[in-house]
Design brief:
Belongs to the FMN-dependent alpha-hydroxy acid dehydrogenase family. The active site is at 273 (proton acceptor). Its cofactor is FMN. By secondary structure, the chain is an alpha/beta fold. It has one domain: TIM Barrel. Helix content is 43%, strand content 12%. It contains 15 helices and twelve strands. It has helices spanning 6-14, 23-33, 36-43, 50-60, 105-115, 130-136, 152-164, 183-188, 217-225, 232-241, 254-262, 284-295, 311-319, 329-360, 377-388; strands at 63-64, 79-81, 84-86, 90-92, 119-122, 141-146, 170-173, 246-251, 267-270, 301-305, 324-327, 374-375. The protein has an eight-stranded parallel sheet. Strands 1-12 form a two-stranded antiparallel ribbon. Helix 5 (105-115) packs parallel to helix 6, helix 11 crosses helix 12 (284-295) and helix 13 crosses helix 14. The longest helix is centred in the C-terminal third of the chain and has 32 residues, at 329-360. It is globular and about 60 Å long. The structure holds flavin mononucleotide (FMN) and 2-OXO-4-methylpentanoic acid (COI). Flavin mononucleotide binds at residues 42, 55, 93-96, 123, 125, 145, 173, 249, 271, 273-274, 276, 305-308, 327-329, 332.
C-alpha cells in the first residue's frame, strides 16, 4: 500500500472513524500514532514504490464470476497448512521489530494470532526472543522465518532454538541477499529506537543496529550480517541441520518454483517481500498462477503474500491456486492501533470479509472455490483475441 499523502490523511481526519471498519483505516490510525521513522519503515516499499502500488492495482484488476442459488447457510473456512489446522486461510507473514509498534510487540501478535486459530510466522529479526514469543501462546501454530547469516554457527543455533521452541517450519527468505533501498529509511537514517534490541541475537552476533550511518542503519546492518552467497545448495545444508519442513519465501517464477521442488522444499511463498526489495517486480497475484501451474502434482504447497487488504483479495488468491495467503503490514497497523486487541480486530475483519465473500461467491467451503470464479486481465485478453478470430 502506498504511503498516505498529506491530503489523504487530512481527508481521513475530517471523517475519522472512532472504530476503523477496514484495514486501510487501521493504517491511518497507525500513522497517527507512530513516530514518523517507525511508520515510514513499516509502510515503505523500495525505490519508486511501483511494485507497492501494483500490489493493490493487480488485485483490483481481477473480478469475480459468482454462482447463485447455492445454500451457504453453513460455511467452513478451515484448512491445513503443512498439516496444521487453521480456522481460515489468512496467516501472518514475518515482519521485523514489532516492539516499535507496541510494547508487547511479537508477544501480542502471538497471542492474537493463536486466539484466532491461524498461523504466525515470526521474523528472525524480532525484538523479542523466539522462546518468549512461543511461550506467550504455547498452543499457537507458528513458523520461524530464517535469514541465513554469514556466521553459519549462529544460523545453526537459531534453527535449533526455533525447533526446540516448537516452531513447525522454517520459512527461508530467499529474496534478500541485500536489503532493498527504501528511500524514506535513508532520509530518516532508520535505526532501532533506544531500549529495543534484536531479541534473537543477544548471545549470538552483534545485537545493536548502527545509529551513526549516513544511510538506513538497517541496510548497513543487513549488509554486515546476512550471507549474500546464499544459494540452492544451502537449502540442502539446512536439511542436514534440521528436520523441520522448509518453505521458501520470495519465489516469483516457475523456474524457481521447480528448483524449490527439486530441493525438497515443503512450501513456497509467492512473495516480493511486500515490494521492499526489487522494485518493478510483478505483483504477486499476477504471477501466482505461473507458480501454481509449474508445481502442480508435486508435494509442495503454494501460498501468496503482498497487498492482501480485503477478504476478497484472499478469495482471488485461492481461486488462482494458493492454499492460503499471508498478511504483513495489516498486522503491524493493528498492533500500533490497539496492541493485541488491534491485531485480533484486523484478523477478524479479514476473516469476516472472507466469509462474506465466500458466501456471495456461492461457496460453502474452500473446496468450492475454483478457477472459473475469477477473471484476470490475461483471461480478458484471451477472450478478446478469440473474439477477433
Ligand atoms: C515492516 C516489515 C518488516 C518485514 N520484515 C520481514 C522479515 O523480517 N523477514 C521477511 O522474510 N519478510 C519481512 N517482511 C516482508 C513480509 O514478510 C511480507 O512478505 C510482506 O509484508 C507482505 O506484504 P504486505 O505487507 O503487503 O502484506 C517485512 C515486511 C514489512 C512491511
Ligand atoms: C530486518 C529486515 C531485514 C527486515 C525486513 O525484511 C524488512 O524490513 O523488509
Amino acid at each position: 500500500m502506498q504511503p498516505l499523502s498529506a491530503q489523504a490523511l487530512a481527508q481521513y481526519r475530517a471523517a475519522a472513524p472512532m472504530d476503523p471498519v477496514n484495514v486501510m483505516e487501521y493504517q491511518m490510525v497507525a500513522k497517527e500514532k507512530l513516530p514518523k521513522m517507525v511508520y515510514d519503515y513499516y509502510a515503505s516499499g523500495a525505490d519508486d514504490q511501483w511494485t507497492l502500488q501494483e500490489a493493490r492495482s493487480a488485485f483490483e484488476r481481477i473480478t469475480f464470476r459468482p454462482r447463485v442459488l447455492v445454500d451457504v447457510s453453513v460455511q467452513d473456512m478451515s484448512t491445513t497448512i503443512l498439516g496444521q489446522k487453521v480456522a481460515f486461510p489468512i496467516c501472518v507473514a514475518p515482519t521485523a521489530m514489532q516492539c516499535m509498534a507496541t510494547g508487547q510487540g511479537e508477544k501480542a501478535t502471538s497471542r492474537a494470532v493463536a486466539s484466532m486459530n491461524t498461523l504466525m510466522t515470526l521474523s528472525s529479526w524480532s525484538t523479542t526472543p523466539l522462546e518468549e514469543v512461543a511461550k506467550a501462546a504455547p498452543h499457537g501454530a507458528r513458523w520461524f522465518q530464517l535469514y541465513v547469516y554469514k556466521d553459519r554457527a549462529c544460523t545453526e543455533r537459531l534453527v535449533r532454538r526455533a525447533q526446540a521452541a516448537g516452531y513447525k517450519a522454517l520459512c527461508l527468505t530467499v529474496d534478500t541477499p541485500r536489503l532493498g533501498r527504501r528511500e524514506n529509511d535513508v532520509k530518516n537514517r532508520f535505526h532501532l529506537p533506544d531500549g529495543l534490541t534484536m531479541g534473537n541475537f543477544l548471545d549470538l552476533v552483534q545485537a545493536e543496529m548502527p545509529t551513526d550511518q549516513k544511510d538506513s542503519g538497517l541496510a548497513a546492518y543487513v549488509a554486515s550480517l546476512i550471507d549474500p552467497t546464499l544459494n540452492w545448495k544451502d537449502v540442502e545444508w539446512l536439511k542436514t541441520i534440521t528436520n523441520l519442513p522448509i518453505v521458501v519465501k520470495g519465489v516469483l517464477t516457475a523456474e524457481d518454483a521447480l528448483m524449490a521442488v527439486k530441493h525438497g522444499c515443503a512450501g513456497i511463498v509467492v512473495s516480493n517481500h511486500g515490494a521492499r526489495q526489487l522494485d518493478y517486480s510483478p505483483a504477486t497475484i499476477d504471477v501466482l498462477e505461473e507458480v501454481v501451474n509449474a508445481v502442480r502434482g508435486y508435494p509442495i504447497e503454494v501460498y501468496l503474500d503482498g497487498g492482501v487488504r480485503r477478504g476478497t483479495d484472499a478469495l482471488k488468491a485461492l481461486a488462482l491456486g494458493a492454499r492460503a495467503v499471508f498478511v504483513g503490514r495489516p498486522v503491524v497497523w493493528g498492533l500500533a492501533a490497539g496492541g493485541e486487541e488491534g491485531v485480533r480486530k484486523v484478523l477478524t475483519m479479514l476473516r469476516d470479509e472472507f466469509k462474506l465473500g465466500l458466501a456471495l461467491l456461492g461457496c460453502q467451503s474452500l473446496k468450492d472455490i475454483n478457477r472459473s470464479m475469477v477473471v484476470t486481465p490475461a483471461d480478458r485478453a484471451k477472450t478478446a483475441v478469440r473474439a477477433r478470430l
